[in-house]
Amino acid sequence: MEEKPLKLTFPAMFSETLRIHGDCNAFAFVGESPKSYREVNSEICSVTAFLEANGIQPGDRVALLSTNMPNWGVVYFATTFMGAVVVPVLPDFSVTEVSNVLEHSGAKVLFISTPLLSRIEGYKSEELRNIILIDDFSFYYSAGKALEYNREALPLGSYEVEEDDLASIIYTSGTTGRSKGVMLTHKNITFNALKGQVIQPMDHTDCFLSVLPLSHTYENTLGLILPMISGACVYYLRKPPTPSVLIPALAEVRPTVMLTVPLIIEKIYFNKILPTFRDNFLLNILYKISPFRKLLNKAAGKKLKATFGGRLKFFGIGGAKLNKSVEKFLIDASFPYAIGYGLTETAPLLAGANPQKSVFDSTGPSIEGIELKINNPDRRSGEGEIWAKGPNVMRGYYREPEMTSEVLTSDGWFKTGDLGRFDRKNNLYIKGRLKNMILGASGENIYPEEIESVINNFRFVVESLVIQKKGKLVALVHFNIEDLEKKYHLNKEELEKKYHDLKHDVTKQLELKENELLSELQEYVNTHVNKFSKIQEVVLQPVPFQKTATMKIKRFLYT
Asked: Does domain 233-389+413-433 have CATH number 3.50.50.60?
């Protein structure tokens, strides 16, 4: 008798994992004993019973505003297993953004972690009946009688969840301003996770170290659902992933899989690896010669792999474009990196390859079962907007039919808003966002992301943004002031202690040095870009740019 294919729903997938990997490790905080999938299942049952007791029914929205933790996954699965809809809220959302999401989604219950309670200060709504602390499932607020959570409770109802049922509404923290509620079904997400498994097979021996917010679709699908269907274990940090927290965690967990954004590996390269070569006279000379650079990068790569625990086989990079110099280093270093491309609206993965098949500056080919095309490509360059079609494309934007019709065609194509091209082997190359593209004086297409990539290779530059201002290309640049002070021995605090009257002089010296660097930078960039992309002005950005959850700069704030 032919075996019936598994339904593409979370409960069906979890049941299969429970059957095969029930006693395998599922979730844990770093430094603590993991819960098995069987133990997690018991908690899912008791939280489902808790939701029932609080009046939640299939189709109701349950908001989840929390830092990453084992209970995050428990609440996510408990909600979706009973046919309710989870609304993950990004922890870095402001008070206004959080209240907008709660209001717009019509959430009846909010699970919140204690450190984020300030984000709901003053928020009141007739629809939001209960606010529950996710740490221990105790009540923070209840419009009715606060019911006690019972660990032994079992659900009263029996729920039949279908593939096309809504599982999640994820509000994007986009670079263009207004948050939109992306409606993703069980099938959208599970299909995508299963195709991630095709790109990089995983099993119960794998362990993930989670550093990105679970409320972002990238970490949500590939860092929660993918390990769940593989029977793998996920470890969470109790504190933000600063070097002092991350390095000991890597040594303890020794992950085989990590999902990151470019900024993480770029910081390591520019702040730790590159200075060891630049600050040594001989190494600085050798690093400029290709064969020696490759050897030095290989040696640095060995140390880097050891820092990551020595077992890493998949280091996923997504959410933004990776700096080309950093990618060249990763290739020389034989570091197991893999670049993927996707959007919240596509749950998220559209293209990607595993570390053995990575192609320089490309995201790799479209994933199995997904159609990608370049709509109306330029005759000469082959560039145009990337359109996608497949089982992972969202149902639409919640309560926004007009916005939905702007991006979804009648025959099911999703307009990504990204510009790209394919090579002869069907590898996809992303040029930038259509909205970010600047039209030059003679009608040329100028991609600010490509100019920024050049700027970010310049010494002391942390990040940059290229905009058009009164017809001129202007670069906003944020320097690493600490490194600048260190390099030129201009530490204001120390000098002020010794020579109070020198503080003003030191500040002036620093300003002069910054202005010198801005001029140098402009010259450097303009010798590395085409004639249409030359910068007319460089402006110092004194504080870091505001960013989205995947560390992309919120451009709308600066243009």
From this structure: no
